[in-house]
Each structure stands twice: as C-alpha cells, then as structure tokens.
Amino acid sequence: MSIQYACVLPHPPLILPEIGRGEERKIQHTIEAYQAIANHIARIKPETIVLVSPHAPMVRDGFFLAQSEMDVGDMGRFNTAQLKYAYPLDEEFNEALINIRPDIRPSVMDLDHGSIVPLAIIKESYDAFKLVRIGISGLNREHHRGMGKAIQQIANQLNRKIVFIASGDLSHRLKADGPYGFNPDGPRFDHKVKQIFTSNHLEELFDLPTNQCHEAGECGYRSLLVLAGVLDGLDIQSEVLSYEAPFGVGYLCASIQLKDPLVNLARKAIEHYVKDQSILSIEVLPGIDPHMQAACFVSLHKQDRLRGCIGTLQPTQSNLIREIIHNAIAACSRDPRFNPVTEEELLDLEISVDVLSPAQQTTKDQLDPKRYGVIVRSSWRTGVLLPDLEGIHSIDEQLNIACRKAGIDPSDAYSIERFEVKRHHAYL
Fold first, then answer.
1. Non-local CB neighbours of 85 within 8 Å, separated by 6+ positions
2. Residue 42, phi-psi category: left (phi > 0), alpha (psi -120 to 50), beta (remainder)
3. Listing from the earlier edge strand, what are the strands of the sheet with 415-419?
4. Residue 230 has what pLDDT?
C-alpha cells in the first residue's frame, strides 16, 4: 500500500452552504464532482490524506508543514466562525518528511480555507484519517516536483493507504466583471490545464509558459506540480470530472486513478472470457514476479454490491499470474451465488485482488478482523472470511460469519487459522 488515489479540488468557500446561502447552486457541477470524489475516498478508507494548499503559509525558500498533534481552524474570515474544524496530524509521516527534505519548515498555523473546504466536504463521507498539510513554495518547479516525489517515497516506506489532494483554483481572470477582471491568458491557461488532465499527460504541466501562469492569476498551479511529483513513474489515468467558472474563477475537479497491474490482469481475464469464452494467455506481466506463487481471491462489485468472489487458500497454479486469471474467471462465471457476468455489465464492475500470505494456526485471542482474515475448519467443512470487511468490527462477528458460511455451529469445536492479505483495488 502507498499512494492509492489523487485528485484536484478547488476551494470556493461558498460551496459550503453556510457561506454560499444559495449561491452554491451556481456551481452544481463542482458540487457533484466533489461528492463523487468524496465517495471514492470513503471507499478507499485512507489512513492518511496529504493535502497541498496554496493558502497555507507560503515560504520563499522552503515548504510549510503543519506541525502539531491537531490541525485546527475555522471560517471566521468568511463571517462563519461557527464552522470549526480539527484534524489529527500524521506525526510519523511529518517526521519522515522532515528527515528527507531539508527545505521543510514545520510550524503551527491554523487551517487555511484552501484546506478546510476540501476536507470539510470529504469529512461528510469519511473522517477516519490523519492529515498531512503542506504549503507551496517560492522555489522553482523542480523543487515542487521533488516535494511530490518525497511524498511518494514516504508513502511507500510507511506502507499505508495514502490519498493526495492538490487544492487550488485555476485562473481568477476569466470575466471582465469578475473579482480580478479579464486577461486572455486566463482562459488559455485553464484550457491547457484541462487538456493536460483529459489527455493524461501530467508531465506537460512543467511546460506551461511562466508568463502565462502569472497573467492568468491562478492559485493552484504549484499544487499541481507537487501532484505530478507524487504520481511520478506511476501508471495512472486522470479524468476531468467538472470544470466551471460562473464567478470568473476556474474550478476544476479532476480524479486520478492508479492502475494496479494485478487488477488490470483480472479485468483483462474477465473481459476476455466473457466476450470470447476463452482463457487469457499471458505469461509475463510488468510488476509481477513470473516465478511467484501465491493464493489469491478475486472479488467483483457492481454499484457497491458483491457480484462475485472466488479464491484459493493455497496456490493451485504455477505462478500468481495464472492464479489471478483462474480465479477471475471463476469469480465472473462460477460463483454459485450469482449468474455469470454479462458483457453489458463489464464497464460497471469494480474489481479487487487479495493476495494471501500463508495461513497459520492461531487462537481467537490472536485475531484482528482489520488485519487478519480467518479460516475456520470442522471436519470437512471450511469457512473463509477476508480481513477489513465493511460492517465487521469484532472478532466474534468475524468468526460467526465464517462459521455460518461453512455451516458450522459457532458453539461447536473448530480450528482457526489466520492470514494476511495485500489488497489491490482499482477504486473505479
């Protein structure tokens, strides 16, 4: 686990109903895109959200980093001081960032509105995260790219679910009667940024003319440079969910999915089988050791509902590539609880691949439903339950469901094994 998802979000204060007082209806497309992104994040359940805001303190020769146990602030400058917010900071992530970036300037400063607005909306859907809040810098573009790379590096080191948010508006000079007037470089800048995210060519952000960025009166460009660094070298798919500018300021919402090679393999296997009724033939795949053997489960969801799930507890194929193909086909065609997946359903499928560690005999007191999956056995009956499933919060719940799946009375004697998984999910 590391960077799971990234997005670009504007920060108009009036998107909050207490401030907008009806004016927020003029940016309905932005609101809908925001909600879609918040739902994505809720599905991912990140442990940490890393956010870069152009309205956090800007340091000429470094990068501000919010440093305390809690990051707090309110919207008093917009005459709504009753809107108060507090988020626990990820002190471990902060410490790692300070250790590898000598240009980090840790400080205690109240939450800025460029951070409050995105986090307030996300919190309505999901709030079980810690925060890392960073400001932009007076340093050049490559320093911002480097900051993004450092964020990716630490995300990999800490091995936790991370979502990255680039907070920022685009041009503020799109209308003559807007708050900053009109400049022809405003619409040119916004058009180019939209084009970059639509075409999935984030590297082109570094080629934008400096003068055009300045004349456009943007506030989010340097956040986007950090975003490009965060995603450097990763296989991504970016999508513009909305763009509008009714007040003379460009509001862009973009979603950036990370393509997981295991999920892509499972999807290809399913599509190939459903369309051609034949087995996908792939022997080598970048990112997967061709000699690795492992058990795995392939799970399918459609509109947040289970649509199929088949897996193995021990490797049954010569390598993980073939194991995934075999279980993906079984999940879409041989799960006895469901009809086979049809070609019309393919675009609506959400696919995850769980790669299992070897199971170990254990006892009830050594279980943790968030970390470990369980296998229960009694005579010839076997029940399996994956870890970290929604709605399962206790060991007793986990064991009772696993027993019920196996037809085992929970009051009878049964053996328990536990295993860990590495979960791969496209979060589409």
1. 72, 73, 74, 111, 116, 119, 120, 123
2. alpha
3. 360-362, 415-419, 373-378, 381-385
4. 96
pLDDT of residue 287: 66
Q: Are 257 and 178 in contact (CB under 8 A)?
A: no
Query: Which pLDDT score is estimated for 195?
Result: 97
Structure tokens, 334:
């041989």
Round the average pLDDT of the chain to a whole number and report it.
94
Residue 428: per-residue pLDDT: 42
Residues facing residue 422 across a β-bridge: 355
How would you label 113-146 residue by residue, b for 16+ Cβ within 10 Å and e otherwise?
bbbbbbbbbbeeebeebbbbbbbbbebebebbbb
CA distance 175 to 81: 30
pTM metric for this prediction: 0.75
The pLDDT value given to residue 427: 47
Q: Report H helices in 318-394.
A: 320-333
State the pLDDT confidence band at 364, using cuts at 50, 70 and 90: very high
3-state helix, strand, coil in the chain (%, to 5): 40, 25, 35
| Matching residue, tokens 């984030």 | 202
Which pair of structure tokens corresponds to residue 263? 């999920």
- Report the DSSP pairing between strands 48-53 and 130-135: parallel
Bridge-based pairing state of the strands 104-107 and 3-9: unpaired
Distances (CA, A) of 394 to 368, 387, 397, 407, 423: 8, 11, 5, 20, 20
How many helices (DSSP H) and strands (DSSP E) are in the chain? 11, 18
CA distance 357 to 295: 8
Partnered with residue 257 across adjacent β-strands are 5, 237
Non-local (6+) Cβ contacts of 134 within 8 A are 50, 51, 52, 53, 56, 63, 64, 65, 66, 147, 226
CA distances from 408 to 132, 387, 399, 412 (A): 46, 20, 10, 7
For 187-233, give the DSSP string. HHHHHHHHHHHHHT-GGGGGGS-HHHHHHHT-SSHHHHHHHHHHTTT
Q: What pLDDT does 426 receive?
A: 63
Q: What is the pLDDT of residues 165-193, one digit of tens each?
A: 999 999 999 999 988 999 999 999 999 99
Within 13 Å and on the Cβ side, how many CA atoms surround 35? 7
* Range 77-91 average pLDDT: 96
Instruction: List domains and CATH numbers for the chain.
Output: 3-258 (3.40.830.10), 260-355 (3.30.700.20), 357-421 (3.30.1490.150)
Query: Strands (DSSP E) along 89-216, which ranges?
Result: 104-107, 130-135, 162-167
